[in-house]
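Table S4 entry, Phosphogluconate dehydratase.
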Amino acid sequence: MSLHATLAAVTDRIIERSAPTREAYLARMRAAGLQGPARAHLSCSGQAHAYAATGEDQATLASGLGGHLGIVTAYNDMLSAHQPFETYPMVIREAVREVGGTAQVAGGVPAMCDGVTQGEAGMELSLFSRDSIAMSVGIALSHNVFDAAVFLGVCDKIVPGLVIGAQAFGHLPAVFLPAGPMTSGLSNDEKAQIRQKFAKGEIGRDELLKAEMAAYHGPGTCTFYGTANTNQMLMEFMGLHLPGSSFVNPGTELRDALTREGAKRALSLSALGNAYTPVCDILDEKAYVNGMVGLMATGGSTNLLIHLIAMARAGGIILDWQDFSEISDVVPLIARVYPNGLADVNHFHASGGLGYMIGQLLDAGYLHPDTKTVTGEGLGAYLMEPFLEGATLTWRKGTSESLNDKILRPASDPFQATGGLQRLTGNLGTGVMKISAVAEEHRLVEAPVRVFHDQDEAKAAFKAGELNEGDVIIVVRFQGPKANGMPELHSMTPFLSIMQGRGQKVALVTDGRMSGASGKVPSAIHVVPEALDGGAIAKLQDGDIVRVDAVNGALEIITEGVLDRPAVTADLSAYQHGTGRELFALFRKSVTSADTGATVFGV
């Protein structure tokens, strides 16, 4: 089927809008590619330093005959999703030796767990960690001795940061190697219910901890469909993973085989061979549109509305929220994974997973089929599913039928006709809402506001019984990137869910973020202009009437005269120091707005 007219129009608009910056970026990458393998230009002393600790690989490196693979790793063993990466360098080195190549760990990048820092001061560094990761990639690859690179990362800011960094070295091929999700434990729905009981004071902390540890119980990605697993989806839709590799559990023979094959594949795409495919050619305008389609069709994390913009700008491509909105208007929601449903990503994968979804969306004209990918083929290669035949990795055609229609549906019979995210605009500003998990009866809330300057104030008001009656819109402001790094406000989810569950009409409006796992309570987030920039959100007072309307895409102040008030100011000194926050003052001063990627990098 031909490409849907809206997708074609949005793609053409992005290409036209991005032409000057994209052309300049590609010119830089072509010039870098023409220089050839950089290590040959090093001095003898420089080469000796680079090869000194490589043991059996020294002779191969000195000869300059084999391809050399750089490994950029986000390994640490506090992130369950990244713990499996501990052994990947050894596996990768062994794999590339089989094809006459060599590999070294080029460098490590920081990787923080948003699950640990939710509601804590460290969350204020979370978004900024993305750009720090990109800078760390720059340092890792600055030695300029590699013919290709593999990137080891899974979670929230890590994959976007790695993609930004990879594009700075866009003349090199890049393959992203995932670790996969942990096996299913306590269901996400049961976990959410226990959190609500704790918030009500019905159970103690010992029972809460027991439930949390039953949910997060082993190596691998958390099994809900939050930002980490949305990242994994994107890497397949955008052609940087091997087909079907995102949701294979860690510690399995298939996972190990995919890691080995991914390393070999990266070297095979280098300029030393006949299939040179630099990452700058894979991540083009069409690839980013495919990523946006995947985001909408799966009901993915709102965080990617920021990250995809920043990722694209690193390759000279300019996206805006209107692009996302128009795509969401026409792309059907065909997956239900918690918090948008009861299934986790293991159930999703078993039901047909990404291969089934890509097939459905291609057949219905919602994806560009002709993008370049690390397979050497177009997106059709991602209909294939990996298997082991003995010790040999092979791919077979995946299922063309959903194996569970409560989790996956065909594009012709979707869960809803539009995508999982909604842009909201009006005199209060511009924001976004994840609607895939919000019941239709909760998508329009018009009510008085209660205004807070941080989430702790809001939680204290709830505990004091101040939010027990009547419809209310909770406004939490001075949470934007310039104010305090734009933390997620996920720790508010339990009490907001309690309020909604007891029959109150409730919504959240904030210039901060919510977790990629949030969704049942309507939340207008990423509001711009942010309060620190004097946005209308900084003019609201308790009792003002606001309409949050995800049906019509509106975010409106109903009370007259609000916009004539001066914007309030806030004491932000508590955000300036402690838990490393003082080290990121320059970021807070130079970061762009949420709708331009909340990044410290220019285009």
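The domain at 421-596 is CATH 3.50.30.80 (Glucose Oxidase; domain 1).
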